[in-house]
């Protein structure tokens, strides 16, 4: 099984362990937007002093995952619509770089590993295990970055897409959503196996689409207390959410 929380990393400090665990719980929606977070309770549960917990919460605040209000307490941040759009545009551009580079450099053993991750995603879908499904999803995108020679870009993407990941978790329960993701991933891997850069970029861009106002609004309407910001104002400013797809995904 894939380590989901990242808290098992060797040599991690107490602050890093708490930070990774809380970040995972927030991004996976185990801690819902607006929910209170007790520094004291987390310290007791972890068997730690409150200092590393406080430091972890400060890091989460910098990542816009928690809101710390003096004398009022700490809560899980609501998902900012504006940040969703910005993150999606940035991620799409970076993933296009990764997949184009991977098409030129990918090795047969790396393709085999990617196909194994697709099999794992299928198994986790059949088992109804959305958490390991998501972990395999992450591993596949990371493998593409490594194959392209840009593992550092994946680290940037991981940070950029935190808010998008929270939103995506709300879409997984949709009918056949995980099935569609597997099909989209297979199209990307097939293009990489054929070393077809244009097809790989187009497949990746299509895979990352889905943040237009029309896509976001029903999710927001089902979970109105989880979001902050006016969808119409944001999309008026940015235009279509998939602006990144209007350039790189087109054949040159």
Please describe the topology of this protein.
Layout: H1 14-27, E1 36-37, H2 39-46, H3 50-62, E2 66-69, E3 73-76, E4 79-80, H4 81-105, H5 108-127, H6 130-147, H7 151-160, H8 162-171, H9 177-193, H10 197-208, H11 213-222, E5 227-228, H12 231-238
Parallel strand pairs: 4-5
Antiparallel strand pairs: 1-3, 2-3
Characterization of the model:
This protein is mainly alpha-helical and 252 residues long. The chain folds into 2 domains: 14-77, Arc Repressor Mutant, subunit A (Orthogonal Bundle); 80-246, Up-down Bundle (Four Helix Bundle (Hemerythrin (Met), subunit A)), CATH 1.20.120.530. Helices cover 65% and strands 6% of the residues. The protein has a 3-stranded antiparallel β-sheet. It has a two-stranded parallel sheet with strand order 4-5. Helix 2 (39-46) packs across helix 3 (50-62) and helix 5 (108-127) packs antiparallel against helix 9 (177-193). The longest helix is centred in the middle third of the chain and has 25 residues, at 81-105. The radius of gyration is 19 Å and the shape is globular.
